[in-house]
Structure formats: structure tokens, C-alpha cells
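Lecture 7, part 2: worked example. A protein chain together with NDP.
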Amino acid sequence: MQKVTLNNGVEMPLLGFGVWQIPDAEECEQAVYDALIAGYRLIDTAAAYENEEAVGRAIIRSGVPREEIFVTTKLWVQDAGFERAKIAFDKSLDRLQLDYIDLYLIHQPFGDIYGSWRAMEELYAQGKVKAIGVSNFQMDRLVDLICHNDIVPVVNQIETHPFYHQLESEKIMKEYNIQMESWGPLAQGKNNIFQNEILVTLANKHQKSVAQVILRWLTQRGIVVIPKSVHKERIIENFRIFDFELSQDDMDAISTLDTNTSLFPSKNNPNIVKQFANWKFDI
Ligand code: NDP
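Predicted complex, written out as C-alpha cells:
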């Protein structure tokens, strides 16, 4: 598995497995188990996905040594703040049945994120987490967090897919040595992505699937990807992306698909901010 080296020296697999929207515990456990058996060594969960227990069980059941697996989980908005974040972290650790987390992310840029970040800096200093980062941070929020704290986030996990390339954000994150990680790499199937003419042409050219072309395109850009699937054959398919290479012409063809627009509700919208503040989980 190809890896990237984060700004604190920790290595992270370039390709992983995401588990959002797998609320059924058995289904989630089976999917993570299938992913680990297929060879994935990065699992991306979150307290708000309410499936950390299932991820923890799958890790144990797989028999893969803990030190070979890179586990990411995330702090939800309701637990923002110095004291709350530390409690929430311990709860995640318990649910995952782990004694450390590889990467802990602030899930959304809302609430007392500065308190959260200081708690995460403390957890990092204690060795309870190997790396700390953020998710869904637009560049102004990201730079503000960096300017007012000691530790620079290792990762920013943001929406990135063929219809939203995030080129401007990528440039700024490179300046700060922050690893870009794509969520929704397959655009969650939106916009008929799997039937897109350009992507289908490239898939046929390389005798690969559209999903494989997309994941290859992102990883060739050096972006960490964490596709989700509950189907074993797709889990395996999404893992087989390192036995072919896209040419510069192929990459240029995908460039034409960029709309520079999110496919999801804007985090700048006051109503959305309010919605996130009220979005509570039993965690
Ligand atoms: P993805 O872009 O990974 O798309 C998942 C969808 O694509 C599912 O409907 C899946 O269906 C389908 N799919 C997967 N593989 C294939 C394939 N080979 N062929 C056809 N269809 C396929 O969306 P996600 O939103 O799940 O993003 C991935 C991960 O990113 C999440 O699981 C989560 O870990 C993370 N994430 C983080 C966010 C954040 O705020 N930080 C927000 C959103 C996601 P099926 O399961 O039926 O196979």
C-alpha cells in the first residue's frame, strides 16, 4: 500500500475505507471486516456515524495486528470545547476498543473548535492519538486555526471528486504542508457519475471501472481517498487501483469536469450552521 508522510512524520495509507451511512451494526462490521481482508489498512469512522463499536469489532475479528491499521475517528460538534472533547475522545476509544487513535479530526468547523484543538494537542502530547487534524475547514478557518495554535493540522478532510477538484484549497494546504483527504470521492454516486461519458471512456481505455479511474485520479494527485461501499465486490474493486496509471491527457480530460462547486449544502449558509448546532447524537 502506498503511503503519505504527514507533517509530523506519521505515515498514512493513500487509500482507505470510509463507513459513513452504514448505521446497521452488523452490516458495518461485515464491510470493515471485508475491507481489512481485502487489504485496506485505513478505516475512516466518526463518533457521529454511530458505528465505532462495529468498526472496533471488525478490527478484532480480522486478526490484522493493530499497529498495521490506521484508524481515523472524529469529534462531533456537540462535543466541541476543551473538557468535552477529552471526554468524547475517551468514549470513542472505548467504543472502538482501542488504546490509541491514529488520527483524530475535528469533524466540522463549528462550536468551540479552539478549545477542542487544545484538548487534541494535549491528547497528542500524551500519545493517545498519533496525529490530529480537521475536516470540512474552508481555507480561512484553517489558516486562522494554524495562526492561533501550536500544532498545524496534519490533514484536512474535504469534499473532493471529479465535479469538485478543490484546486485552490489544495494549493493553500500544500503551502502549510497539510495532507488533503477526499471525502465523497465517488460524489456519493450523484450527477450520474458512474455513467459520465468522459469517465466511462477512460474506464474502457484502461479496462477498469469508473470508480477505479476516479480513485486513481485522486491518488495520482497525492490525495488520500476513503471510498465507502457495503458490497464486497465493490470494496475489492475500489482497492485495485495501483496496477494502472492515468496519462497526463487522461488527467486533463477529468479536469474538464470540475464545476468548482460543492454538491452538498454550503457550510457558509447560516441555516446550515444552525442545523449542525442542533444535530445531536446519542454518543
Ligand atoms: P462515496 O463517494 O465514497 O460514495 C459511496 C457511494 O458509492 C455508495 O452509495 C456506494 O454504494 C457507491 N459505490 C462505492 N463503490 C462503488 C463502485 N465501485 N461502483 C459503484 N458504486 C459504488 O461517498 P461517502 O460520502 O461515503 O464518502 C466516503 C467516506 O468519506 C465516508 O464513508 C466517510 O468515511 C467520509 N466522509 C466524511 C465526511 C466529513 O464530513 N468529514 C462527509 C462524507 C463522507 P454501496 O455502499 O451500495 O456499494
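The chain has a mean pLDDT of 97. The radius of gyration is 18 Å. Keep this in mind for problem set question 3.
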